[in-house]
Amino acid sequence: MIGYVTLGTNDLQSSAGFYDAIAKEMGVGRMMDFDTFIAWGAWDGGAGIALTKPYDGKAASVGNGTMVALQAKDSEQVRRLHEIALANGGSDEGAPGPRGEPDAQGNTFYAAYFRDREGNKLNAFCMVRDQ
Questions:
Q1: 115 is a domain residue
Q2: Count of domains in the chain?
């Protein structure tokens, strides 16, 4: 079970607003806030997300093939998260919509892809029925 995911940043304060807006839409806020590290989530909730300046003092970089997926309540929240990401300095990596074919129960993976201000790739997703 994942407790939280940490992404590197070279400018914690500048990047924090992006995640403040995403967290607000998901109904959580900052649960830890230090000079070099901020974490969003709820202590008694699911997995959280954190930003940190690298401990080794070197520049943070984006992992090729690395992505953090944020589980949304429904397709409308997927769309809102994508809009919030773009409005807060993120960039588009794939507009909200169904991906792939429905499974045997008629559920379809619905997702939107975006990058934060430092280039870390995220997506917001949910399963929808008969999309």
A1: yes
A2: 1
Within the chain, which residues score under 50 in pLDDT? none
Per-residue tokens: 79: 């769309």
Kindly state the tokens that stand for 22.
Answer: 């995403």
pLDDT in tens, 41-61: 999 888 999 999 998 999 999
- What pLDDT score was predicted for residue 75? 97
Residues 2 and 47: beta-carbon distance below 8 Å? yes
Q: Do the domain assignments include residue 60?
A: no
pLDDT at 126: 96
Residue 49 and residue 4 in contact, taking contact as beta carbons nearer than 8 Å: yes
- Domain residues for the domain of 106 are 4-54+66-129
Q: What is the CATH number of the domain that holds 74?
A: 3.10.180.10
In sequence order, what are the residues at sequence separation of 6 or more whose Cβ sits closer than 8 angstroms to the Cβ of residue 47? 1, 2, 3, 4, 5, 41
